[in-house]
Design brief:
With 364 residues, the chain is α+β, with helices and mostly antiparallel strands. A hairpin with a 6-residue loop joins β15 and β16. It starts with a helix and ends with a helix. About 3% of the residues have low confidence. This is C2H2-type domain-containing protein. It is found in: Nucleus. Keywords: Metal-binding, Nucleus, Repeat, Zinc, Zinc-finger.
């Protein structure tokens, strides 16, 4: 056999071997991770992914010590410390360190949410967000805290939770001294001091710094309280509020002040208390200049100067001694009656009016 014939034979043999391999269409994900089942189109991508399960993170940040499985991830992370955010959103001005993050953010403004949950109907801008959401319905929480046993659906949520036990709160508010475990928590908190509340309730006019807070508030108007305490029967609109309430019955006060020893059932109560020791009094009286560590105490003090005329209605000028009284009064300025009795179909402007009416049906 000549050399030319050998070359032709070799080429034919190679083509034959290629034909024997299973045919894979472009974009098909044929490489699966044995640990978590995630699929990939390339073997190299699978190998890179498997580093996550190995726990090996050889690339560390010199500034904060955070470690990564890949050098590329470290480089991206280091942009955070540089402070450089070259990619800005034309609609809201928010800046990002990566172009990909900007693109994902822009989906929020588009209003398009093509990925919907079959179980509850909630929609999302990205398929990944839908997948994470669906874990809530599955009830599976594979990531548990070694300290308190609390479980989570995502490893990221566990990591954020573990910061609570570390006690490290490197992000502090310059105005009131309150500290946070994450920069995002500090940014959210600073909106309180800015006084800017762009999200308003259409039913009562109450305003909020965040859209999420408005949504939670709107549950109050719905009158729907599916979470009830088994010990006292008190009902709540949110499961989280019920859990906090149940701590009262438990008698457990696991958050103690290191300065005076006073104990609290909730960490939020402890944080408010700690401000009294800091000496910072961020809330001042406009009349006499006296300062207070707590906004609630400042409002009580204001009544000395105003004769209880602290909360005034923007519509008619009527004064009230408490914010809750003002909020109830605001219902009188609307013609909407969104609260309907299930038994007689009668409608009301406010939830407290509906509750009072329902007592008629429950009387013996």
């Amino acid at each position: 056999m000549t050399s030319t014939q050998k070359d032709q034979h070799g080429a034919t043999s190679q083509r034959s071997q290629e034909a024997d391999k299973p045919h894979r269409r472009k974009g098909e994900k044929t490489y699966s991770c044995d640990e978590c089942g995630k699929d990939f189109t390339q073997a190299g991508s699978l190998k890179t992914h498997q580093l996550i399960h190995s726990g090996v993170k050889p690339y560390s940040c010199d500034l904060c010590g955070k470690s990564f499985t890949q050098a590329g991830h470290l480089k991206k992370h280091q942009l955070i410390h540089s402070g450089v955010k070259p990619y800005s959103c034309d609609l809201c001005g928010k800046s990002f360190t990566e172009a990909g993050h900007l693109k994902k953010h822009q989906l929020i403004h588009s209003g398009v949410k093509p990925y919907s949950c079959d179980l509850c109907g909630k929609s999302f801008t990205q398929a990944g967000h839908l997948k994470k959401h669906q874990l809530i319905h599955s009830g599976v929480k594979p990531y548990s805290c070694n300290v308190c046993g609390k479980s989570f659906t995502q490893v990221g949520h566990l990591k954020k939770h573990q910061l609570i036990h570390s006690g490290v709160k490197p992000y502090s508010c310059k105005l009131c001294g309150k500290s946070f475990t994450e920069a995002g928590g500090l940014k959210t908190h600073q909106l309180i001091h800015s006084g800017f509340k762009p999200y308003s309730c259409e039913l009562c006019g109450k305003s909020f710094t965040r859209a999420g807070n408005l949504k939670r508030h709107q549950l109050i108007h719905s009158g729907f309280k599916p979470y009830s305490c088994e010990l006292c029967g008190k009902s709540f609109t949110q499961a989280q509020t019920l859990r906090k309430h149940q701590l009262i019955h438990s008698g457990v006060k696991s958050y103690s002040c290191e300065l005076c020893g006073k104990a609290f059932a909730l960490n939020s109560d402890l944080q408010r208390h700690l401000v009294t020791h800091s000496g910072i009094k961020a809330y001042s009286c406009d009349f006499c200049g006296k300062s207070f560590s707590n906004k609630h105490y400042r409002n009580i003090h204001l009544r000395i100067h105003t004769g209880n005329d602290v909360y005034c209605c923007d519509q008619c000028g009527k004064p009230f001694t408490t914010d809750s009284q003002l909020q109830q009064h605001m219902f009188s300025h609307t013609e909407e009656r969104p609260y309907k009795c299930d038994l007689c179909e009668k409608t009301f402007k406010a939830p407290h009016q509906l509750k009072k009416h329902q007592q008629i049906h429950t009387r013996k």
